[in-house]
Design goal:
- The chain has about 700 residues and is of the alpha+beta class.
- It has a seven-stranded antiparallel β-sheet with strand order 1-2-3-17-22-28-27.
- β15 and β16 form a beta hairpin.
- α4 packs parallel to α6, α10 crosses α12 and α17 packs across α18.
- The chain is globular.
Length: about 700
């Protein structure tokens, strides 16, 4: 659930900022929840390499950069849970990063669709790839618009959903749909209500006979979850499959939802192309589940075990029936399980589930309620602030034996705590990348842990340009922010010319991250040097015992990846390790120092068959975007490292199952081969002593 400032009574489209007390009370009452050196001049001079900016390789007969590279296509798009990580068709470890698309689905103005047109969907997808390098979106769907009448799906709605989703898949983004709900349904709320909801269709509400909604002393919309009897009773009825009298006869409300979900998935499977469907990462059955009310003797933990998990089993059966057998279900626990305000916390996170099974994902949300409250965290976020919160996610992933996704996280961009957003979001991304604070990372890197997949809330192309009649009331026309319960969290908007632009610091959102690792990630860190106003935030400083590394990185952005390769059978050529390169990382200036070699301005990727000509190279991201990626190939034609790992003395190790490292810096000062070689030796010694094992 998205947490923001309180709504105030108003008509028109103006948004009012809540007082500090309202912000605090609202947050308190709501949950969210790493051979020898191989420089670019070893094959040719750096200047010559960049004279070939069009990608043509000397001697010809090689793969050109861009789409069609042998390791792209369906095998790269498909992701599968493999223990506690995602892997693609090449067996590479995959990290899913991106945004939610979008809260517009909650509104009526586009009738439950994320976009007014497929053209807008395409523009949004291209902007997301170009501006942030995201590779995955959580794509919101509306039950209300999918099933406007009991037992009947709206084929026109499903067709439009499929076309808009296809635009994201065609742009090289993976997608997992989400049947979204908040406060159960918009139809529980009357025209003059302070709040609204989304989710269930009108007929399900009318047949339920719920009391007129009333939240009492509620200064934040999320309080309705536990205080509004209409919301609480309707939620309870859904989880216990209350049979409702409808025009189509008696109908269990959960049965109806599951039937519509199956029809939706079948429609998507039938109408998406095979290449598009390969990019479907799975399905999120239900947003932020909560019991509504507990029965006698029931608590949050037993509700998860006895009510929520059986629902997920039923949904899994519907996925299989619709032809989604190979796609995982992204399962959300009780929404309050990881609240970081003590009295709002409820036990959960599938504590009684044991291993969730090979076709499941542990899927959760996190919003820093203490930061949003203002008083509970009066200053800005600091280095390491959210490490404990995200460590809980890693722990539940390990305990349930499945990958984890933080499918919503964010911070309000408007209101009394909006000034905290730059630091709060930096702290969240830091905790997604590593379980260590920046001040300790180089000293304790072996404890860095897995990189978490996550989708920020949200990516709304229409931010600040809505025209939503709140609860159908023409006297309450919402235009600002997200146009939903006073929220304002979209990372994107359109400028005066209609072009999509970021609303937050590009350095924060367009991040270096390991999109696909040929082996297992052991440690990763990214110093984004994002800004809080005019202040540059540097939380990870290069230690004094790595002076050449510090000289090389200077004051610019850098990332460090350590991974262990996995031995391949039959001499198969492994696909390269890929990291997204932020737009500020000019390929001609980017510096890479790795056990594979070093490069100042890596050349475009070329290959002889499946053998890369350069161990360090760049290429456009798949999907026709101008975003770029760094490719680290374990073997390369004529390359001295031949896939080996560097020992402390700098000699090449044996191929397969070895430790590798790569430092990637944006470059801003001269990086001569001598300095790169010195930095490489420093990093080789550091990696050998860091405790990674093997």
């Amino acid at each position: 659930m998205v947490i923001s400032g309180a709504r105030t009574r108003h008509g028109g489209g103006g948004r009012r900022r809540a007082g500090a007390v309202g912000i605090v009370l609202g947050a308190l009452m709501t949950a969210g929840l790493y051979g020898p050196d191989t420089t670019a001049s070893a094959a040719e001079s750096e200047d010559a390499a960049w004279a070939r900016a069009d990608g043509a390789a000397p001697g010809g007969g090689s793969a050109a950069p861009g789409d069609g590279l042998w390791f792209d296509g369906r095998a790269a798009a498909e992701v599968t849970p493999d223990g506690t990580r995602f892997t693609d068709g090449h067996g590479r470890e995959v990290v899913l990063r991106g945004f939610n698309v979008s809260g517009e689905t909650k509104l009526h103005e586009n009738r439950g669709l994320p976009f007014a047109s497929t053209a807008d969907a395409r523009a949004s997808a291209e902007a997301l790839r170009h501006l942030t390098g995201g590779n995955t979106v959580r794509f919101l769907l509306s039950w209300a618009y999918a099933e406007p009448e009991p037992g009947r799906v709206d084929e026109a709605y499903l067709t439009a959903v499929t076309e808009q989703m296809g635009a994201f898949l065609d742009a090289g983004l993976r997608v997992y749909p989400d049947f979204h709900q908040d406060l159960y349904s918009r139809y529980l709320f009357h025209r003059d209500s302070w709040y609204t909801g989304d989710g269930a269709p009108r007929w399900a509400v009318e047949a339920g006979g719920y009391p007129r909604e009333f939240c009492g002393i509620c200064v934040h919309w999320g309080q309705n979850i536990t205080q509004n009897k209409a919301v609480m009773n309707a939620s309870r009825d859904f989880w216990h499959n209350r049979v409702l009298p409808t025009e189509a006869g008696p109908l269990g409300v959960q049965d109806a939802f599951l039937a519509t979900a199956e029809k939706t998935m079948a429609h998507l499977k039938e109408h998406l192309t095979g290449d598009q469907f390969a990019g479907i990462a799975g399905f999120d059955p239900y947003n932020e589940p909560y019991a509504g009310t507990y029965r006698d003797g029931e608590d949050s933990r037993s509700w998860e075990r006895d009510t929520l998990q059986p629902f997920y089993e039923r949904f899994r059966a519907r996925m299989d029936a619709a032809g989604w057998e190979d796609k995982p279900a992204f399962l959300e626990p009780n929404m309050f399980w990881n609240s970081n305000i003590g009295f709002q916390h409820e036990e959960g996170g599938f504590l009684d589930a044991g291993r969730l099974g090979p076709r499941s994902v542990f899927n959760t949300h996190f919003y820093d309620q203490r930061a949003i409250s203002g008083l509970l965290m009066p200053g800005k976020a600091r280095d390491g602030q959210n490490l404990g919160d995200f460590e809980k996610v890693r722990e539940r992933s390990a305990a349930t034996g499945v990958p984890a996704v933080v499918s919503e996280f964010g911070h309000p961009l408007n209101g009394l705590t909006a000034d905290k957003a730059p630091t709060v979001l930096k702290a969240m991304y830091q905790a997604l990348d590593s379980r260590l604070p920046g001040r300790d990372w180089w000293r304790r890197a072996a404890e860095s842990g897995p990189v978490l997949s996550a989708q920020q809330w949200q990516w709304d192309l229409y931010s600040g340009r809505h025209r939503e009649l709140m609860n159908g009331n023409p006297d309450k026309v919402l235009t600002e922010g997200d146009a939903w319960n006073d929220e304002d969290l979209s990372a994107v908007e359109r400028d005066a010319s209609g072009e999509p632009v970021l609303r937050q610091d590009e350095r924060l959102l367009d991040r270096l991250y390991p999109a696909a690792v040929s082996g297992r990630t052991l440690a990763f860190v990214y110093e984004d040097r994002s800004r809080d106003g005019n202040r540059t935030l540097t939380w990870n400083r290069i230690p004094d015992d790595l002076p050449h590394v510090a000289e090389l990185t200077g004051s610019g952005r850098y990332g460090m990846l350590v991974w262990r390769s996995e031995a391949t059978s039959g001499g198969a050529e492994p696909a390269p390790t890929e990291l997204h390169l932020p737009r500020g990382f000019d390929p001609q200036r980017t510096i890479v120092v790795s056990d594979f070699g070093t490069a100042a301005g890596p050349p475009p990727y070329t290959a002889d068959g499946r053998t890369a000509r350069h161990p360090i190279a760049t290429a456009p991201e798949a999907g026709g975007t101008d975003a770029r990626r760094l490719l680290l190939s374990p073997t390369a034609a004529g390359g001295a490292s031949e896939g080996g790992a560097v020992r402390e003395d700098g000699a090449a190790g044996e191929p397969g199952g070895r430790l590798h490292f790569a430092l990637i810096a944006e470059g801003g000062a001269a990086a001569p081969p001598e300095l790169r070689d010195q930095a490489r030796r420093e990093l080789a010694r550091w990696a050998a002593r860091a405790g990674f094992g093997g």
